[in-house]
Amino acid sequence: MISKIFIAGDIVIFSEKQNIVDEKLKNIIENSDLAICNFEAPLKSVGKKINKAGPYLFQNPKALDYVKETGFSICSLANNHIFDYGEKGLKTTLNKCETLNIETIGADFSFEQANKLLIKKVNESTFGFLAFSEAEFGVFTDYSDYGAVAYINHHKTNKLITDSKKKVDFLIIIAHAGVESVDLPLPEWRNRYKELCDFGADAVIAHHPHVPQGWEMYNNKPIFYSLGNFYFDRENIKEDSSFSVILNFNSNQFVDYKIITHKKINGLACFIDDKTFNNKLENLCQKLNKTYMTEIDKMVLDLYEKRYKFHYQKAFKAYSSDMNLLKKTSRLINNFVFKKTNYKNKNLLLLHNIRIESHRFVMQRALHLIFEKDNRKQ
To answer: Going from the N-terminus, what domains does the chain have, and what CATH number goes with each?
Structure first.
């Protein structure tokens, strides 16, 4: 008998509504044996914001009710927003999950619980689930005195995966990592996800970029680099078409997968069968092959110029002819970059870009390419 595991991407629900999916998509989810999503932020609570760089998110108090009604029975909480409102925000979310009989993976109040293997019996097989995030604020690390989220690059993660595989027939890893709003996964994440498979994972399913990326088979194990958003209550997102995946297993092995494409239309995630979007997904997979590294080099240089360097360049250009260049540029950077983004501690921006692997990978690769180019000119 085939076991069907439905896995969806990011969910953020701000406002009250009747439901979040159309009937066709709901039927697909309910006809699966298990359905998992990434619950991207805590429920609204009296919790206070943690000290971090980047935006803060919370969800409507009824958001998990909608998730349950849609057919999801497992929520991954290993992401960069689930601890935005500290312990109270996480506790409110975990308590509501328990009330609704929604099981969770990837975040809790101890390292052991956040990294605890969830085992589910489906037909004749046992499935294990683990969820991890890159080193966002709120992730358990050896140098942090707070945390809630399982860390994908913790020194204990590889052994955890190997030990977990011994307890189940199939082990599925949910990962939250990568650069937002780009078509390609970084080489470092491709290598890491393959490494997770080498240590025992039977599939790695990732999200966080908020847009679809490609997927590939590695030693007969599927790796999906970004599912994109399943349901995100915001209109100014880059891509409102995305996909979920159904993994099919028999009692002995992974069989195949099925792509479920959907789009947010009039406030609902709706099943679609759009040739143009299907072609786009196929193209994303093709990009992982022959031209991958060439496109990666172009991508990181563009990201460096537009995301990491842009505001500082603008500041210097604005005052390039002024004799008090250094003083006024410093003031402009302070006002334009830090105050506008509400960073209480300016060092948080530096920490943000250094500790979170995706930012560090981009800057390191881009600067290396720039250095090599400059060196060739000499």
So the answer is: 3-286 (3.60.21.10), 292-377 (no CATH)
